[in-house]
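Could you join me in thinking about how sequence relates to backbone shape in a protein? Would you write everything just below, so we can both look at the same thing?
***
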Amino acid sequence: MSLESELFLKLKPDREKLEACGFVPAGSVSVFRRTFMDGQFEAEVTVDEKGKVSGRVMDTELGEEYVLVHAHVRSAFAAAVRSEYLEILEELARTCFVPKDYLSAQAEYAADLVLSRYGDRPDRPWKKENGYTVIRNHENRKWYGLIGEITLDKLMPEAPEEKCEILNVKVPEGKMAEYLAIPGIWPAFHMNKKNWISVLLDSGVPDAMIAQLLADSRSFTETRKADLAPSDWLVPANPAYFDVLGAFRQRKTLYWHTKKKMQAGDTVYIYYATPYSCLVARCLVTGHADDGANALTLQEFYERGRYPLSLLKEHGCRTVRFVTRLPQELKTFLDDTRKKENEQ
């Protein structure tokens, strides 16, 4: 591992401070230069668009790279050059970089995704193992993902002992061979290889696949109650804060954030709070935005008072305060009512 890689391993650039620190934009990268050792050498530090830091030291008299700064040699002069170069790197790390929780951009993506889409906040239960982050279902504390720092040789024996980051997720046994054929995916490191895989993050596996793997793995932690409909939801809305009906009249699809996991094709019933206290609309989940919001496409408006709270309670509805799955009894009632109306 290079001096730069080791020092900036858990740091990311503060883009607003780079220019103030002396970094100059050069295409897709930013470059910092400073002479040292009485002008004999020049430090050249580069930050690319992904935040990766690289550097070299140039011999100003010869116009060549001084490679000994990156080599372990027994030379007092080389050690002095290395020491002053390190001081420059450490100064940059202090002044224009900030700490980050993960080594890879995809680990940050995964952590942000599970929090925004499911309300699952990753945690680190092992103080001595700071490189491991657990992703668990916040409702029952069952875990479905593990972000870990390992060295590449743990996945590929012929690879160097270079730090990398993996995501372990659970997959159906029937899909194991399919996933292992994808570059960047291996049998799970340090977990049951029958139903867990390791994804090497930032290795080319698309974000969309990471999101799907997390969704599939999370599904193993979910319990479905027999008296709840698996794909029908009740979503409360407060007309005092947001005019859902007015918004739907302007456009057929709204984007709705919720911690509950909804799938495309699910049915959503909008419940209006006081002074309405009734269902006002039926929608279909037609997809998801990049930030995880559910795309709700209007299917039908309900007249005020058609499905009041008292009627919902008669058919098994226990709460209208939170986003919840529809009781099977209420789903059957609503489906049967709609079917009878369509037949008339």
User: Anything to note?
Assistant: The radius of gyration is 28 Å. The longest helix spans residues 76-96.
